[in-house]
Amino acid sequence: MMAMTPSLRWTDVALRLALTVGAAILLGYNRSEHGKAAGMRTTLLVCLAASVAMLQVNALLPTAGRASDSFVMNDLMRLPLGILTGVGFIGGGAILRRGDMVVGVTTAATLWLATVVGLCLGGGQIALGLAATGLGLFALWALKWVESRLRQESDARLSLTVDASGPDEAEIRRRLRDAGLSILASRVDLSRNGMHRELVLEVRQFRLPQSTETPAPIAELAREAGVIRLQWRE
């Protein structure tokens, strides 16, 4: 395993930069594949910046420390620490909130990992940097495949208006429970003449992430006699 040395050869620089570019492209390709704003180019630039910073630290090693006649100490590790702090701002910009959803967290984490990989490769810790790249790719691809096959909690709101001939609240609740839907909260509004009822139910279900179909019991309820209006919003 290579490490930082006082004398930095150009062959070492070329190898570290080449590995940095390769690792960054592999990590960034996953983000570009999913249409993220911080994709391959952003990941490559962040990883290169970290790698070059460590190369510069390596080149400045002979000047580290404090001369016997000086009160100033040249602390080279402030440079990579500053790089990590700066990437925190970039990662924060990649995280967005859209309604009840928060997106961009994985992209921000990928940029953070790319920075650390760049620091490792630029500093000469080749095996550590390559191992971190491999584990990062495992998290981005393999674990994504696992997550897509895990049933996840999903909250939804069921709003429906029924007349006197439609199913009552107890019947609707029974159907939802039989379908595996948990009722979290409910609200019932009755018209003045008692002919119409409006029910609003907050429910929770477990479904695959890629599933976008309306649950079968909800579709059947919409076709029920006496149901005037039904709205299902996830």
Structural summary, described in words:
The chain is an alpha+beta fold and 234 residues long. The chain is built from seven helices and six strands. The longest helix has 24 residues, at 10-33. Helix 2 runs antiparallel to helix 3. The protein starts with 9 loop residues before the first helix and ends with a strand. It has two domains: 10-147, no CATH class; 152-233, 2-Layer Sandwich (Alpha-Beta Plaits), CATH 3.30.70. The chain has helices at 10-33, 40-59, 78-94, 105-123, 126-147, 169-178, 216-222, and strands spanning 96-98, 101-103, 152-163, 182-190, 196-207, 227-233. The mean pLDDT is 82. 26% of the residues are buried.
**Broad structural category:** alpha+beta
Number of helices: 7
Segments where pLDDT lies below 50 for 5+ residues? Answer: none
Helical residue percent band: 40-55%
How much of the polypeptide forms β-strand, as a percent range?
A: 15-25%
Average per-residue pLDDT, rounded, comes to 82
